[in-house]
Amino acid sequence: MLILVGMMVGIVGGLVGGVAGYHVALAGVPANAAAMQSSNAKASNQATVISDLRATEYSVVDTVKQAEPAVVTIIGTFQQQSRRLSNSSITAEGSGVIIDRQGHIVTNAHVIDGARQIEVVFHDGAKASARLVGADATSDIAVLQVSGRIPAFLPLGNSDTLQVGETVIAIGSPLGNYRGSVTVGVVSGLERSVPGSGLDSLIQTDAAISSGNSGGPLLNLAGEVIGINTLVVRVTSNGNLAEGLGFAIPSNTVAAIAKQFIAKSTAN
């Protein structure tokens, strides 16, 4: 997919962990075993903590099942920039997420910039034409709309409540060939900026993001969209390689811009 480039930075644009509390863990422990744990804890004057990694794993699975039908692949058709092939066209793919019952879809502005035709591929393979509601290159946010059947939509969450270390999930179409791909990571940082991108106040995550993931949602375990994946840093300006440096536009920023686009479109 189309990727932002700046300062020699290769740009194309959440981990399982968790601890179940003592009382939760005891739900699956026999009474005599629970009593023994409690006795041992009192004897050592330390609280007993039982880790249950499966609880978080199942939370990720449930969130993905809920979210995937609302995630779409976006195919833009562009005019070929060549004198010899002046009548030909090329396509490029990105990702997006349906945010309401009216069929509005949020994606990155760079995904559809210059496209003369936009098509959406739903999770089940069905396709629909999309119209551009609005796009803002500065924030890298665009809103599309499809009509007809809407399989699902996801609410925009409150990105101001995010915490560093919080589990997040990215869903999208990396390389355009692996639709509905899921990666999991954490919020690595908040209020980040990427030199050369023109973007700031970004969410940093180590969830894997590749070309084609641009415009796809970054979710919390409640299934809320808390960010729109926009870019990843792979090489720094001095040539150093980087891993796990993905960035997403906070959902509160997305919501404010999308609301303006939709209101203007409705008024017209």
Jot down its keywords:
Thrombin, subunit H, 268 residues, globular, 31% strand, six-stranded antiparallel β-barrel, alpha+beta
The low-pLDDT segments are: 1-44
The largest pleated sheet is described as: 7 strands, antiparallel
Helix content: 10-25%
What's the architecture of the largest domain in CATH terms?
A: Beta Barrel
- What is the domain tally? 2
Shape: globular
Widest sheet, order of strands: 7-6-3-4-5-9-8
Number of helices, where a helix is a run of at least 4 consecutive DSSP H or I residues: 5
Measured between the Cα atoms of the first and last residue, the distance is 31 Å
The strand count comes to 15
Indicate the mean pLDDT. 80
CATH superfamily of the largest domain: Trypsin-like serine proteases
- Taking all Cα atoms into account, the compactness measure Rg is 21 Å
Strand content: 25-35%
Structural class: alpha+beta
CATH domain topology of the largest domain: Thrombin, subunit H
Strand and helix order: EEHHHEEEHEEEEEEEEEEH
CATH level 1 name of the largest domain: Mainly Beta
